[in-house]
C-alpha cells in the first residue's frame, strides 16, 4: 500500500493541527489545576492552616493536685501520697506476655494479674500504658528500674494518690475519694471536663465530697501535638492549673483519736463541741473502717465484711443515727414548761411511781416513786412522772418549739454525708405524717424523749452546748480554707431567760455531783473541771404487759439488738462551760453506767493537754481502774503539724 | 512499508544516536523524578532508605531501559506493536486468573523479582497499537464507520479486562488515551460529539434514576459520589481522606511549611502520603511555589513531547509520541484533580513522583519509545 508524499504531508499536517488542539486543551487543564492550587493554597490558606493546627494540636487537661485536709492544729488527715506503680506499653514491649513473665521474677505478680494486663493491652491502642502493679513498695520499684534492660516497655511511675494516714479515725468525717462513676456524672450538671479523665478521683462521701469544689482545684492544660491516631508526639506548651485549697477542720486529731479508741468496738457515736464557737473537736462513729481501702478499690470480701457487720461500720452514727434521746431530752421539756410559766424551778410534783391520764397508766422508771420532786431532783434522779405532768401542762407544741430552738429536729449544716434531721414531733407533724390527731399519750412519751422523738448525737451535743452557753451555737467543722481563717460567727442568744437556763444547768450539775444523782459515778473531782450532764436510757422495744407482769427483765438477758440505747450528754467546766459532749452507745444498756464514763473521759481529754485525761480529775476510788483502762487504749502516734504546707 | 525504508539512510547509526537523543526531555524527566525523591525522603521523616532509595534505584533501571528502547529503531517498535498488544491482552487475561490483588485492587503477577502490572503495560501497548493502526490505515478512511469501529474495539478489549479487575482508574485512563489517539489520527469530530452527548445523557440518567427501582449504580456507589461532592458530610468516613488532603494542600500557603515540616503528612493525617497523595506533601511543605513548579515541570515534559511529535513527519512516530504524552498528561491530571478535591478518589499515582516501581518502569519505557522516535525521525 503505497501512499503519495502529498498524502502523508496532509495527514501529518492534520495530526499537527489536532496535536496543537490537544496541547491547547492540556494547557487549559494545567491552567485549571494551577487556579485550583492558587485558590486552595493562597485564597483559602488561612482557613486550611487553622484546620491543620486543629488537627495537630490536642488540648489535654492536667489534673490539679487535690487540696489536703488537716486537723485544727495542722496535722495531716488526708494527703496526697506518692504512689509507685509499674506500667507496660504494648508497642515497646513487643511480646507482652514474655515481658510480664520476666517481670514476675522481679516483683510479685499473680497469674490473674498477668491475664488482666494481657486483656487490657489487647483492648487498647498499642501506645496506651497499662497499669501492671499499683501501690508498690519502693524496693520493688527500684528492682524494676534496675532490671529495665530486660523489661522493654515496662516503666516505673510515680503518681499522687489520696491517702488517709489516720485511716479509721476520720473515715466518717472526711470520707474518701474514688473514681468518677457514670452515676456521679449523671448527677452533676455541666460536669467539669476533668471528671472525664480516666483515673481522676473525686470525693465520694464526707468532707471529701461536700467540699469537692474547694479541694479539687482548677485543671491546667497542656497543648500537645498528636498524630492522626491520637498518639502524643510532643508537648507544645502547658499552663499549670491551680492546686485545690487545703482545708483545716475544727477537729483535733489527737482528741478524735482518743475518742475513737475510747469508743472501742461498741456500736457507738460521740460528738464533742466547743460551746462558744461551735467548733466540733471530735466526732466519731464506731466501729469505723479504713477509707484507704476504698481509694485503692475495696475487695468484694472486705466490702461484704463491712456491710454484713451488725454494728454497721459504714454508717456515720454521729450525724446519721437518729435515736430516741430518752431522758437527755428532759432539759427540753423542763425549759419549755419553765418558759411558758406553767412551773417554776421550785414547783413540786408528787411521783407515786406512775402517772395516770386518759385511762392509761404511765410508769416512772422507779417503780416505788420519787415522792415530792422539784426541777433539780427531777433531773438528778431522772423522775419520769415529773415530766409527764409538766408536759401535760405545757403541751407538745411548746416543747417541740423549744426542742427546735435547742437544735433538735433540724439539719445542722456540716460538710458531711447523710446528716439526719431527726424528728421533733408536734401536732402538725403527726397530722401530716400519720394523718392522725395528737394524743395525750404521745405527749407523755415525748416528754421523756421517747415515742416519736429522734435525735442524732450531733443534735444532742448541740442541744447541750446551747443549754450550757445560752446561745444558739452552730456546729462548725471547717476552720480555714486555703490560707483564710473562716470567721467564727457569734452565736445569737437563745432567747431563753438566763435564770431558767441556770436552774436547768443546776439540775444537770446535781445529776453528777449530788450523791443521789444518776450520774454520780461520773463526777469530776477537779474543781476547775466540774462536769454537769444528763443520762438517758432509751427503749428500743415496747415492754408488753405480759413482760411487765413477769417483771421487766434486765438488759443483760436480752439479745444485743433489743437492749436499750445508752445515752449521756454533758458539759464542763460547770462555771464557765467550754465543751459539750454527747455519747450514744447503741444497745449499750444504762446511760450513766455505759455512756456517762465515756462523756467524762472525752470532756477531760478536751479540757486538758493530753495525751490522756489526768487521773487526778477522777474520784480516788476510780483512779486505779481508770488508769488501767486509759493506758490500755490503742492510741496512735500522730505526726506533728505539717509545716510549710508541703505537698508530696 | 517501503515508505519507511528510505529513512534508514538519514537515521543516525551507532554511537551517533547518543547525540540525537532529546537530552532536554531526559533532563526534565530526571528533574521531575528527583522532586519525587525529595518528597519521599520527607514523608519517611528524613530517611532516604525507606522510599527514596528504592525509588532512585528503580529510576536508574528505568533510565537504562529508556536508553535501550531509544537506541532500537522506531520501525522495529512499530512492527512489534501488534505483538506487544496481543501479549499485554494475554497478560491481562492471565492476571485475571493467577494474579494477586493488592495495593488498592491493582492486579499484579510476581515473576521472580519483577512485579508485572499488565494494566500499566496496556496503556503503552494500546498507544503503540493504535498508532500502528492509523499508520497502516489510509488517512482518507479514518472516519469511515467500519474503520472507526475497529480502533474502538482495540480500546475496549483491554479496558473491559481492566474494569473487571476491578481497576476503574486505569480503565478510565485507557479510554481517554485511546480516544486521544483517535482524535489525533483525525477521526471526525462528529464521533466525539456523539459519544460526549451520550456520556452526558448516561450521567444524567444515572442520577435522575437514583432512588427508583431502575437505578444503575449500587447505593454505596452513589454515596461515594456524594462524598466527592460534599466530603464534609462524612468527615471521619469516606470523606476523611479528601478533607485531610485538602487541608494539607491548603495549609501549605504561598511558600509552604518547609522541608519535613508538613504537619499533615508527618503526623499521618494525610492518607497514602507516599503514593497517591504525595503531591499534597509537596504542596504543604513547599507551598504554592513548590507545587506550581512541579506543574511547570510536567507542562515542559509534555511540551517537549508535543514539539518532538510535531517535528516528526512519520505518522506512527508522531501518533506514538503524542499518545504517550497524552497518557502522561491524563495520568497527572487525574491524580492532581483527585488530590485537590476536583475528582473522586480513584487511586491513580502521580507519574514519576509517587512511590511505585511498575508504573515508573512502564513510563520510562514509554519515554524510551518517544526517544526512539525522536532519534530515528524523518529529517
UniProtKB/TrEMBL annotation, chain B:
Record-linked InterPro entries: Cell_cycle_FtsW-rel_CS, FtsW/RodA, RodA/MrdB
Presence of keyword Transmembrane helix: yes
Pfam family, one: FTSW_RODA_SPOVE
Residues in coiled coil: none
Localization (cell): Cell inner membrane; Membrane
Membrane topology: Multi-pass membrane protein
Superkingdom of this protein's organism: Bacteria
Residue spans crossing the bilayer: 20-39, 59-77, 83-102, 114-134, 146-164, 171-204, 286-307, 319-340, 352-370
Pathway(s) served: Cell wall biogenesis; peptidoglycan biosynthesis
Catalytic activity: [GlcNAc-(1->4)-Mur2Ac(oyl-L-Ala-gamma-D-Glu-L-Lys-D-Ala-D-Ala)](n)-di-trans,octa-cis-undecaprenyl diphosphate + beta-D-GlcNAc-(1->4)-Mur2Ac(oyl-L-Ala-gamma-D-Glu-L-Lys-D-Ala-D-Ala)-di-trans,octa-cis-undecaprenyl diphosphate = [GlcNAc-(1->4)-Mur2Ac(oyl-L-Ala-gamma-D-Glu-L-Lys-D-Ala-D-Ala)](n+1)-di-trans,octa-cis-undecaprenyl diphosphate + di-trans,octa-cis-undecaprenyl diphosphate + H(+)
EC numbers, comma separated: 2.4.99.28
Keywords: Cell inner membrane, Cell membrane, Cell shape, Cell wall biogenesis/degradation, Glycosyltransferase, Membrane, Peptidoglycan synthesis, Transferase, Transmembrane, Transmembrane helix
Protein role: Peptidoglycan polymerase that is essential for cell wall elongation.
Family listed: Belongs to the SEDS family. MrdB/RodA subfamily.
PANTHER family: CELL CYCLE PROTEIN (PTHR30474), PEPTIDOGLYCAN GLYCOSYLTRANSFERASE MRDB (PTHR30474:SF1)
Record-given protein name: Peptidoglycan glycosyltransferase MrdB
Amino acid at each position: 500500500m503505497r501512499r503519495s508524499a502529498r498524502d502523508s504531508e496532509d495527514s501529518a499536517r492534520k495530526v499537527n493541527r489536532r496535536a496543537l488542539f490537544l496541547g491547547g486543551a492540556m494547557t487549559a487543564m494545567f491552567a485549571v489545576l494551577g487556579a485550583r492550587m492558587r485558590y486552595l493554597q493562597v485564597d483559602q490558606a488561612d482557613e486550611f492552616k487553622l484546620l491543620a493546627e486543629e488537627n495537630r494540636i490536642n488540648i489535654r487537661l492536667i489534673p490539679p493536685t487535690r487540696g489536703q485536709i488537716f486537723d485544727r492544729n495542722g496535722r495531716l488527715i488526708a494527703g496526697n501520697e506518692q504512689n509507685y506503680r509499674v506500667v507496660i506499653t504494648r508497642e515497646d514491649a513487643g511480646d507482652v506476655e514474655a515481658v510480664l513473665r520476666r517481670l514476675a521474677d522481679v516483683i510479685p505478680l499473680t497469674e490473674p494479674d498477668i491475664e488482666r494486663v494481657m486483656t487490657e493491652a489487647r483492648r487498647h491502642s498499642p501506645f496506651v500504658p497499662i497499669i501492671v502493679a499499683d501501690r508498690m513498695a519502693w524496693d520493688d520499684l527500684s528492682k524494676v528500674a534496675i532490671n529495665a534492660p530486660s523489661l522493654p516497655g515496662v516503666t516505673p511511675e510515680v503518681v499522687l494518690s489520696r491517702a488517709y494516714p489516720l485511716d479509721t479515725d476520720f473515715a466518717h468525717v472526711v470520707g474518701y475519694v474514688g473514681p468518677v462513676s457514670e452515676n456521679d456524672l449523671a448527677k452533676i450538671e455541666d460536669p467539669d471536663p476533668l471528671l472525664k479523665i480516666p483515673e481522676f478521683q473525686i470525693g465520694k462521701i464526707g468532707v471529701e465530697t461536700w467540699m469537692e469544689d474547694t479541694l479539687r482545684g482548677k485543671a491546667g492544660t497542656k497543648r500537645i501535638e498528636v498524630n492522626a491516631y491520637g498518639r502524643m508526639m510532643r508537648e507544645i506548651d502547658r499552663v499549670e492549673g491551680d492546686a485545690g485549697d487545703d482545708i483545716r477542720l475544727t477537729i483535733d486529731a489527737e482528741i478524735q483519736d482518743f475518742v475513737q479508741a475510747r469508743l472501742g468496738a461498741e456500736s457507738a457515736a460521740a460528738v464533742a463541741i466547743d460551746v462558744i464557737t461551735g467548733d466540733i473537736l471530735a466526732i466519731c462513729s464506731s466501729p469505723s473502717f479504713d477509707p484507704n481501702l476504698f481509694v485503692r478499690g475495696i475487695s468484694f470480701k472486705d466490702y461484704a465484711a463491712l456491710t454484713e457487720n451488725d454494728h454497721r461500720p459504714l454508717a456515720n452514727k454521729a450525724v446519721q443515727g437518729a435515736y430516741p434521746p430518752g431522758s437527755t431530752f428532759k432539759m427540753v421539756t423542763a425549759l419549755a414548761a419553765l418558759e411558758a410559766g406553767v412551773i417554776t424551778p421550785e414547783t413540786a410534783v408528787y411521783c407515786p411511781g406512775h402517772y395516770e391520764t386518759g385511762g392509761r397508766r404511765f410508769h416512772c422508771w422507779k417503780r416505788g416513786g420519787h415522792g415530792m420532786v422539784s426541777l433539780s431532783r427531777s433531773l438528778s434522779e431522772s423522775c419520769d412522772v415529773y415530766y409527764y405532768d409538766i408536759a401535760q401542762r405545757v403541751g407538745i407544741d411548746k416543747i417541740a418549739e423549744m426542742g427546735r430552738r435547742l437544735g433538735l429536729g433540724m439539719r445542722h449544716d456540716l460538710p458531711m454525708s447523710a446528716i439526719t434531721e431527726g424528728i421533733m414531733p408536734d401536732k402538725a407533724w403527726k397530722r401530716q405524717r400519720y394523718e392522725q390527731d395528737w394524743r395525750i399519750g404521745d405527749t407523755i412519751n415525748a416528754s421523756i424523749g421517747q415515742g416519736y422523738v429522734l435525735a442524732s448525737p450531733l443534735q444532742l451535743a448541740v442541744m447541750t452546748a446551747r443549754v450550757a452557753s445560752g446561745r444558739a451555737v452552730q456546729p462548725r467543722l471547717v476552720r480555714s480554707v486555703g490560707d483564710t481563717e473562716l470567721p467564727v460567727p457569734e452565736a445569737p442568744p437563745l432567747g431563753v431567760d438566763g435564770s431558767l437556763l441556770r436552774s436547768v444547768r443546776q439540775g444537770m450539775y446535781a445529776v453528777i455531783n449530788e450523791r443521789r444523782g444518776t450520774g454520780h459515778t461520773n463526777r469530776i473531782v477537779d474543781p476547775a473541771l466540774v462536769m454537769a450532764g444528763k443520762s438517758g436510757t432509751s427503749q428500743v422495744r415496747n415492754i408488753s404487759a405480759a413482760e411487765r407482769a413477769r417483771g421487766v427483765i434486765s438488759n443483760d438477758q436480752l439479745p444485743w439488738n433489743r437492749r436499750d440505747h445508752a445515752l449521756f450528754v454533758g458539759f464542763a467546766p460547770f462555771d464557765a462551760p467550754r465543751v459539750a459532749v454527747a455519747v450514744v452507745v447503741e444497745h449499750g444498756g444504762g446511760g450513766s453506767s455505759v455512756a456517762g464514763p465515756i462523756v467524762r473521759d472525752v470532756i477531760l481529754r478536751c479540757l486538758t493537754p493530753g495525751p490522756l485525761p489526768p487521773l487526778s480529775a477522777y474520784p480516788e476510788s476510780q483512779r486505779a481502774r481508770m488508769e488501767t483502762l486509759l493506758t490500755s487504749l490503742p492510741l496512735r502516734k500522730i505526726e506533728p503539724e505539717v509545716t510549710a504546707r508541703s505537698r508530696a | 512499508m517501503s515508505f519507511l525504508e528510505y529513512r534508514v539512510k538519514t537515521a543516525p547509526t551507532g554511537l551517533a544516536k547518543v547525540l540525537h537523543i532529546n537530552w532536554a526531555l531526559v533532563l526534565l524527566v530526571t528533574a521531575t523524578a528527583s522532586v519525587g525523591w525529595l518528597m519521599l525522603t520527607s514523608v519517611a521523616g528524613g530517611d532516604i532508605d525507606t522510599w527514596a532509595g528504592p525509588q532512585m534505584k528503580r529510576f536508574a533501571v528505568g533510565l537504562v531501559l529508556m536508553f535501550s528502547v531509544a537506541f532500537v529503531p522506531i520501525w522495529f517498535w512499530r512492527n512489534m506493536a501488534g505483538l506487544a498488544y496481543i501479549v499485554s491482552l494475554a497478560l491481562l487475561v492471565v492476571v485475571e486468573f493467577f494474579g494477586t490483588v493488592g495495593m488498592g485492587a491493582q492486579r499484579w503477577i510476581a515473576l521472580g523479582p519483577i512485579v508485572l502490572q499488565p494494566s500499566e503495560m496496556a496503556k503503552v501497548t494500546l498507544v503503540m497499537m493504535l498508532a500502528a493502526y492509523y499508520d497502516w490505515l489510509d488517512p482518507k478512511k479514518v472516519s469511515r464507520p467500519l474503520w472507526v469501529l475497529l480502533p474502538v474495539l482495540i480500546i475496549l478489549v483491554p479496558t473491559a479486562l481492566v474494569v473487571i479487575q476491578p481497576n476503574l482508574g486505569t480503565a478510565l485512563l485507557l479510554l481517554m488515551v485511546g480516544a486521544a489517539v483517535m482524535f489525533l489520527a483525525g477521526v471526525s469530530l462528529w464521533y466525539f460529539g456523539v459519544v460526549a452527548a451520550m456520556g452526558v445523557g448516561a450521567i444524567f440518567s444515572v442520577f435522575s434514576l437514583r432512588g427508583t427501582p431502575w437505578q444503575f449504580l449500587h447505593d454505596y456507589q452513589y454515596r461515594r459520589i456524594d462524598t466527592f461532592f460534599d466530603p464534609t458530610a462524612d468527615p471521619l468516613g469516606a470523606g476523611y481522606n479528601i478533607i485531610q488532603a485538602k487541608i494539607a494542600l491548603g495549609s501549605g500557603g504561598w511558600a509552604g511549611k518547609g522541608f519535613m515540616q508538613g504537619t499533615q503528612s508527618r503526623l499521618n493525617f494525610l492518607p497514602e502520603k507516599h503514593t497517591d497523595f504525595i503531591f499534597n506533601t509537596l504542596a504543604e511543605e513547599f507551598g504554592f511555589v513548590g507545587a506550581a513548579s512541579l506543574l511547570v515541570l510536567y507542562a515542559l515534559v509534555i511540551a517537549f513531547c508535543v514539539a518532538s511529535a510535531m517535528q516528526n513527519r512519520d505518522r506512527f512516530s508522531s501518533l506514538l509520541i503524542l499518545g504517550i504524552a497524552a497518557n502522561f498528561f491524563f495520568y497527572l491530571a487525574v491524580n492532581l484533580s483527585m488530590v485537590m478535591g476536583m475528582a473522586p478518589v480513584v487511586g491513580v499515582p502521580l507519574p514519576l513522583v509517587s512511590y511505585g516501581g511498575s508504573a515508573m518502569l512502564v513510563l520510562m519505557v514509554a519515554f524510551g519509545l518517544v526517544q526512539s522516535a525522536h532519534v530515528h525521525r524523518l529529517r
